[in-house]
Amino acid sequence: MDFGDALKFCKDHGAKISRSDWGGKKGGSFVVYCAGYPEGVPANKNASESLGIPEGQVIYVDPYLVYCSPAGRQVPWDPTQYDLLADDWWVFS
Known about the structure:
The protein contains four helices and seven strands, in the order H-E-H-E-E-H-E-E-E-H-E. The protein is of the alpha+beta class. The longest helix has 11 residues, at 3-13. The relative contact order is 0.28. It has helices spanning 3-13, 24-27, 45-51, 81-85, and strands at 16-19, 30-34, 37-42, 58-61, 64-68, 74-76, 89-92.
């Protein structure tokens, strides 16, 4: 499927999506949709230090995508041009 279809499935169904190019099921890499915190959430110590705000101050986080590595590490993710134009997206299960 293309990225648009994969993203819709990810957002609408909470699915993990991946690309064949990322090593398939054995590769273990995938992307998930996070709804963020539109109602706000208190900043923890890391966020307060990074943002230069008091710990506990309410911050508002918009929705975002997260890349999950095979090692169990996560990072906010922006797709590349290759990812956006690829037709090898699939639902990771």
